[in-house]
Structures are given as C-alpha cells and as structure tokens.
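Pair request: fold both.
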Amino acid sequence: YAGESFILTMGDATINSISMDLLGPIGGKVLMIFVLISVLGVLNGICLGGIRMPQALAQRGILPKRMEKLHPRYQINLRSSLAFYLLTLFWMGLHYLILKFNLLGGRDASEIAIVFSYASYILLYIRLIQGYLKGQYKSFFRNFFAPIMATLAAFLMIWGALMSSPFYVLAFLLLNTLVFILGTKLYKEDSNERVTSQKDHQ
C-alpha cells in the first residue's frame, strides 16, 4: 500500500515505483510507455487546437481580423500560430520561475489551472442541484447526491492547494478568475452582436 508519506517522498516517481513493484521491471517500463503515449497524445491535441484558437476568436471579432485569414498552403493562420507559440513561451517561463524560486511549495503552474477547473465545476454542480430541486431532473443520485459529493471534493482540492502556498495560489486563482470574467464578457458581447445581426437580416 502506497501511503501518504510514500507518495510525498517519491513525488513524480510514484507511478514508476509502484508499477515496478507490481509488474516487474519489464511490465513497469511497458506501463510507463503507455503513460508517455497518453501524455504525448494530449500534448498533440493541445498544440493542434491551440494554434487555431486565436483564429477562431478572430472570426468572432474578439481578436484582430488579420488572424482570421487562412494560409493557402498550410490552411492555418500563421499569426494565430505565432500568438499561441508566444503564449506557450510565456507559460514555460512562468513554469520555470515557479520551480526555480519554489513559489508554490514544490508544485508547478499547471496545478493551479487544475484547481481553478475544479472551482469552475462547482458552478455546474450547483446548476444540476438547482435543476433537480426545480423538478427539471429526476435522478436523485446523478443530479443531487453526486453533485453534492463532487462539490465537497472540489472544495477539498481548493483547500489543499491554498494550504500548500496560500499567497501565490490565491493570487493565481484571482488572475484566472479575472481572465474567466473577461472571457465571459467578450462571449456575451459576441452573442449579443450575433443576435442583433440575425434580427437585422430578418
């Protein structure tokens, strides 16, 4: 059994150590190969989607129009790809500084994004619970009990992150919240413009 002390001591090597004990040297290496393939698959999806994200925002009028036009050969906008590349460099630099100066208690920047994701899920869980209480959903387990337990787990995740490094975790969460609010505002403005445009055409 891998207890808390073992996981805290081994850190990122926990999976490799446990797989070696359970499956032996060869089996452990095979499992790590599958983990590597899975990680590379996620990275590939992020890159393919990320280079097109500024282009999609430009098509909605949120970013400059010069990011909208496709390159005739590559079928992507090169400015959009460059913007994603610069954003990636920014996050790599931020990640380096966080690990270099131990700003998050040995954790990296991606964990803050995960914590913020859990905080965002709470809004979805609340909507499910409200829908059940209003009679829109019928399943007690899926639409009431499970969302309550998931909300408690999300709060536990946020609390654990705050205890590890209160100031920097709170600062990153506030920064993510500001970006979230800005994105919501831009989305609502874009939706309102689309509705107005459709009414004018009618």
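--- second member of the pair ---
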Amino acid sequence: WDTATNELMETLAGSESETISVAFSPGNSKILASGGADGTIQLWKLADNEDAITRRTPMSAHEAPVNAVTFNNDGKILASASDDTTVKLWRVNDSKPISLEEIAIMEHGEDGEVKCVTFSNDGKRVASGGMSFGIKLWNVDTRTEIVFGNGQIGMVTGLAFHPDGSAIASCGEDGVVRLWSFADSQEPQLLTRHEGKTTRLS
C-alpha cells in the first residue's frame, strides 16, 4: 500500500496457505519477509526502480505455522517463531538470489507454541513468548537462555523492547499490558487493561 495515496501498489502472491506474519528489514527497506501457516518463510525484494519484485521460493523453515518474523536493526538476522515450539535465527543474504541461512534453533520445548518474537535495539537479545505464559530472553551471540517474566496470566501474544533496552513490555490473552524492568526482580508495572485479549505491541 502507498501510505501517501492509500492506493494498493502490489499484491504479493505467496504460498497457497495462510500468511500469518510479515516484516520489512530495517537495514534494507526493499527486503520483506513473510511467515506462513504451512511452516514456510518467504523473502521478497523490491527492484531498485520499485516497479518489480523478486521472490525467493518458499523455504520450509518450521514444522508448524510461523506466527512471527522480525529482523534485527541492521537487517542481517531474521528471527522466526513457530507453533513447533522453536525460535530460529537466520542469516539474511540480500544479494542475488536473496536467501536465508539457519544459524540457531532455540527451543521452548514443553513450554509450548511460540507466538511472538522481537529483537532488542542493539540486536544482542531476542525475547519470545507464547503458550508458556512467560517471557524467554536469549543472548544472540551465545544462544543462552534466561527465563524472565512469569507473571503474565495466559498466553503471551506480543512483546516490545524499550528503545534503551532497560525494559520490555508484554501483552496477552488476559488483556493486560505489563512493563518488565531488567534492573530488578520486582513485579511488573501494569500499564493498561483491554476488554478482551491484546494481540500485538510496538
């Protein structure tokens, strides 16, 4: 969509299954990723003149629906979250042809399906949440895990880091937005309650 004219610019025909998530790369605004109900991830690249689009053949990325895809700030790493209980990290090759290389698998395991994933602004941490009712933090370089934020009541559906990385906000099925500080272990600050579940944060 053209945000200036509200006109439809292009319809991107992906796989035959439902497309669940999309994200533009902050490092290269011509790169778009999408995640599908069939467990695939697709990469799209706008041409320099923006009148043509190239698409990488859908790649089988997960064994269940891909609920979220997101890039780190330089666009070199893509994270994906899936109902197969994993978060995966992918190195993005934006040359021709555009492609993804799997570099890490981070397991939620028995904690269940993963519904959301986000990078900190510095790209050093990944946060994920889902059916486990908690938030998991991962060190991108070492892949080490820190269980954090077990006070969410119900499934976690959205996460967003504070710009300076000092806190993270979460939302979920209980309709409450919570703000968690990394500086202490106190209970989170409850920011607002929605009528019904809250699905996304930004």
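Observation on the second member. The two ends are 20 Å apart (CA to CA).
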